[in-house]
Specification:
Blueprint (H helix, E strand, L loop, with lengths): L7 E2 L3 E3 L3 E7 L5 E5 L5 E7 L5 E7 L6 E10 L2 E4 L3 E6 L6 E2 L9 E7 L5 E5 L11 E2 L5 E7 L6 E10 L2 E4 L3 E4 L7 E4 L8 E7 L5 E5 L5 E3 L5 E2 L4 E7 L6 E10 L2 E4 L3 E4 L1
Parallel strand pairs: 2-9
Antiparallel strand pairs: 1-3, 3-6, 4-5, 4-7, 7-8, 7-9, 10-11, 11-14, 12-13, 12-15, 15-16, 15-17, 18-19, 19-23, 20-21, 20-24, 22-23, 24-25, 24-26
Length: 270
């Protein structure tokens, strides 16, 4: 009579791209090694309990169609190796979802959401062109994140999410994430600049926002304390314009409730 009970595997399928737990039975109180088809060790020191049950966990490839392994049992200095077991992979697809409620314009935004654990993502525009080049992978907890700059005064950001897992793809419907509810800035004066003199600039902003005046490169050029804004959102600030200037360019960054709206560049010629 053999000293070993035949090893069995009770796990029939596993989810690709995430950590899975495999279970089965073998000789009570023995120690197992999990080997690949060539005999290379994949998992060591798996303990079989007194009732003959064992389990081990392993991160599984997102691309493999199955997992093949042998079970080597050791007890009382003796070993026994099983036949080759094959467990089939399944893809537990989860619909892609976006958690980000609003976008900020003129700055880099961080987008978050959920999808299929282990999948890699491509972020596409309306025309299915990839618009984020870095590799995005959905974690085992189903969460993903990526960053992307949003253009000045954008009203929204539109995207599709293509999930890739094990050679298969699924593409979401179009997501539209609106800009944060901040009133659009305007410039109402002056009609022309006067080079070599102090000029007064006027316009409108969201009366509830914090305002910064920036140059075209995003550098602050007016102390916020020198920008006057009334309860209706009318602003005014003074700025000396260079004597050789042919135009004055600036943009307005507004911050409200943690979100930002950056205007397009206003250009006022002499």
């Amino acid at each position: 009579m053999s000293d070993f009970f035949p090893a069995t595997v009770t796990t029939e399928q596993y989810n690709a791209g995430v950590t899975n737990t495999f279970t089965g039975t073998a000789t009570p109180n023995s120690t197992l090694r999990i080997l690949n088809a060539s005999g290379t060790e994949l998992v060591k020191d798996v303990q079989v309990d007194a009732k003959g049950a064992w389990s081990f966990s392993r991160m599984m490839s997102a691309s493999a169609a199955h997992f093949e392994f042998k079970i080597e049992q050791t007890k009382d200095g003796k070993t026994n190796t099983s036949e080759l077991f094959r467990v089939t992979a399944v893809k537990a697809w989860q619909d892609a979802k976006v958690n980000t409620e609003y976008v900020s314009s003129g700055v880099v935004n961080t987008f978050t959401g959920t999808g299929t654990p282990g999948a890699t993502l491509r972020i596409l525009n309306v025309s299915n062109t990839q618009i984020v080049n870095n590799t995005i992978r959905v974690g085992e907890d189903g969460k993903w994140t990526f960053t992307r700059g949003i253009s000045n005064d954008a009203e929204n950001f539109r995207m599709k999410i293509e999930q890739n897992l094990g050679g298969e793809t699924r593409t979401s419907a179009l997501f539209t994430i609106n800009a944060a509810p901040i009133a659009k800035a305007s410039s109402t004066g002056p009609a022309k600049i006067v080079p070599g003199a102090i000029n007064t600039f006027t316009g409108t902003v969201d009366p509830s926002a914090t305002v910064r005046i920036l140059n075209g490169s995003g550098t602050q050029i007016v102390d916020p304390a020198d920008v006057t804004i009334d309860k209706q959102g009318n602003y005014t600030f003074d700025r000396t314009v260079s004597s050789n200037a042919t135009e004055f360019r600036f943009k307005i960054e507004q911050t409200k409730d943690g979100h930002i709206r950056t205007s397009n560049v206003f250009t006022i010629k002499k």
